[in-house]
Design brief:
globular, alpha+beta, OB fold (Dihydrolipoamide Acetyltransferase, E2P), 2 helices, about 120 residues
């Protein structure tokens, strides 16, 4: 094979390898967290964690009905992206698992009061 052919073949292989990869994939860090679900009146639901406080979750699980059979107060285990520093925090939800059923009495009242003051509504 000629020198030009090798350069062209190498260039094509590089474009295929790098052109098909997601440049953001390496930046996607995932974390696991447990907390109580707080079903809000918006599209994003909240998880209340002892360590992270209230965090709004943007559902990217591929299952639009993932929250339908859950209730506020349920203990859940989630896989999420990094949490944006705001109040409430914001994150992307990739996976959710129910650990145990709960009730609204399992939710911390101080977090609920703060969220109400900020205009959040709950189901």
């Amino acid at each position: 094979m000629s020198r030009t052919g090798i350069v062209v073949l190498g260039s094509v292989l590089l474009m295929v390898c790098f052109g098909c990869s997601d440049p953001n994939e390496a930046k996607r860090v995932r974390f696991e967290m447990e907390g109580r679900l707080l079903k809000s009146g918006s599209d994003n639901q909240l998880i209340l964690s002892e360590h992270a406080g209230a965090t709004s979750m943007w559902n990217q699980t591929g299952d639009e009905e993932i929250f339908d059979d859950l209730s506020s107060g349920d203990l859940i285990h989630v896989t999420i992206s990094e949490i944006a520093e705001s109040y409430p925090g914001q994150t992307t939800l990739y996976h959710l698992e129910l650990i145990e059923e709960g009730t609204e009495e399992d939710l911390p009242q101080d977090e609920l009061d703060t969220l109400h003051e900020l205009g959040w509504t709950f189901e």
